[in-house]
TrEMBL record:
Pfam families: Beta-barrel_GLAA-B_I (PF23763). The gene is glaB. Residues 145-237 form the GLAA-B beta-barrel domain. Keywords: Signal. The keyword Cell membrane does not apply. This is Alpha-1,3-galactosidase B domain protein. Residues 1-19 form the signal peptide.
Amino acid sequence: MKRIIFNFCFVWLAVSAFAGSKVVEMRNYGLVPDTHENLSPKLQKALQDIKSQVALGDKVTLLFESGRYDFHPEGAAVREYYISNHDQDNPKTVGFPLEDWKGLTVDGQGADFIFHGRMLPLSLLRSENCTLRNFSIDFETPHIAQVKILESGEEGITFEPAAWVKCRINEKGFFEAYGEGWSSAPQGGIAFEEKTKRLVYRTSDLWCPMEGVKEVSPRVYHAPQWKDARLKPGTVVALRTYYRPAPGIFLSNDKDTRLQNVKVHYAEGMGLLAQLCENITLDEFSVCLRGDKDPRYFTTQRMPLIFPVAGGRLILATGCMKE
């Protein structure tokens, strides 16, 4: 009898809001911040349960507490999407698959959503009058490998990867970055001034050949084929490929969507892509670093924003866009 009463109370706490305020506290579904556990399975179950109890005309707010939430590919949703201007490598692994909603608000209250592996963090499809607000999106291990030039000359370039970069020399003798379920052997990059984080003058996309690279000391590599006189010692290079599987946020076939106080700190594609949408408001939406002390020099692989075949009004309030 006690167990039955407990279960009843749990369900009532989680969804009683539908009878009144329509606010769902995600903590009641086990989505608690700062545990560092994989919350993907709990999030998928919560979204399914909540959606099944939404009546026509309900306006629902999913309320998270401030803090860090970790989402891994295991237990996440799997979807097939056509995402314009990205690689069509379906299926996609999706953290927040929000589909066919009306009057939905996702309020992070300052939540920091951290994704692992290779994922599409958030999708909103075929929805109306929805709001995403008060959260940030980032990845634990970005797919861009940031390195610092130690020596540069006729014998090649010696470089040191940033502390968070997981790297190795692969079986073909190339420098390779890797993470949870992915690996990447970059042959290109973008150069930044160490102190200002500005692009190195008169450089754009760099060719960074990595054939025959050697690890000359722990986490220090020498690339004999990589030669570029513009890259002085101290220069920081974001090594990357041209692969872009997914943006940070994907909107498609939506109407009257609002993003408020949302930050994308990293995505393997673009920051926000909204295709076939009508009426979008971006209020304090930013694609940006984590402040002046952020050790990273990059945000997204490609453009911060893109709106393929969008119509109606596009309202851009305050925000910051840094690729």
